[in-house]
Amino acid sequence: MTEQRVVLVPEGLAGERVDTAIARMFGLSRTRAADLIVQGHVQVDGDGVGKSDRVHAGSMLDVTIPAETDPLAVVPEIVEGIKIIHDDESIVVIDKPVGVAVHPSPGWSGPTVVGHLAGAGFRISTSGASERKGIVQRLDVGTSGVMVICKSEHAYSVLKNAFRNRTVDKTYHALVQGHPDPLEGTIDAPIGRHPKADYKFAVMPDGKHSVTHYKLLEAHRFASLLEVHLETGRTHQIRVHMAALKHPCVGDLTYGADPVLARRVGLERQWLHAVRLGFEHPDTGDYVTYESAYPDDLAAALEIIRDAH
């Protein structure tokens, strides 16, 4: 719902900045008032204004106030590229493409997994915060691959515990720059927020316990294809740990990858893919495994690396 307000500026606000006048007359915050001006929703006597312009008594203030959207609201929409790998009464397993977040968050306005499932008519478990219902694991927006979402309360509690107790087998493939030494190993290094950039993480002495196991699958001139098993599930864990070893994921410019190599292989994101997920099914108790093939951009980049001499 959009609200349209047309009022005359009273004597008491003569000489005030436009954003201040709007804030006081309509009970809005100064920030919200300034945003309305910047977005072109405010006119004074029929003309557009800047937020620091002054108002005069008797001027006609015409303000359009769009309804504020909740950044955490789940918007049902079919998202192109999300594939359903498995679906039953208690879980749905999907293949998540790059560029899709798992759930809404304040800084994200793009497509989400939970929005797609809502749009496709899936009924998801009601456990967890409203925007994260049924979510027991996450993949970064820039990471593709297999993930599970719970549809029943029972499945949610069982799998939440399985992830917490590290009994879920999470297998990733990562194409990293150079050749790790040793070619098979374990990285045990705590991860915390980066001290200088709040969108990044880093190995920090006071960070959370984080363990990554890796082994070499293929060695090439410029890069190595690794199989990675996560023992813990920290945000950006593989990316941070590989960067700490000075072998960042190819294409991962956030964590120090070579931009020249990224361009050469045609990547605009990190070469990292969740290839396999294994766990005990919450209803049957049987061990189940689900897999996801490399998406086109990663497959093409890997072929370029394989052919490089």
TrEMBL record:
Gene Ontology terms describing biological process: enzyme-directed rRNA pseudouridine synthesis
Q: Which InterPro entries match?
A: PsdUridine_synth_cat_dom_sf, PsdUridine_synth_RluA-like_CS, PsdUridine_synth_RluC/D, PsdUridine_synth_RsuA/RluA, RluA_PseudoU_synthase, S4_RNA-bd, S4_RNA-bd_sf
Reaction equations catalysed: a uridine in RNA = a pseudouridine in RNA
The record's section on Pfam families has: PseudoU_synth_2 (PF00849), S4 (PF01479)
Q: Mind listing the GO molecular function terms for this protein?
A: RNA binding; rRNA pseudouridine synthase activity
Q: Tell me which residues make up the RNA-binding S4 domain.
A: 16-80
Q: Where are the transmembrane segments?
A: none
Q: Which Gene3D superfamilies match?
A: Pseudouridine synthase, RNA-binding S4 domain
- Record bears the keyword RNA-binding: yes
**EC number of this enzyme:** 5.4.99.-
Coiled coil among keywords: no
For this protein, the record's PANTHER family field holds: MITOCHONDRIAL RNA PSEUDOURIDINE SYNTHASE, RIBOSOMAL LARGE SUBUNIT PSEUDOURIDINE SYNTHASE D
Q: Which family does it belong to?
A: Belongs to the pseudouridine synthase RluA family.
Q: What is this protein called?
A: Pseudouridine synthase
The protein's organism comes out as Nocardioides guangzhouensis
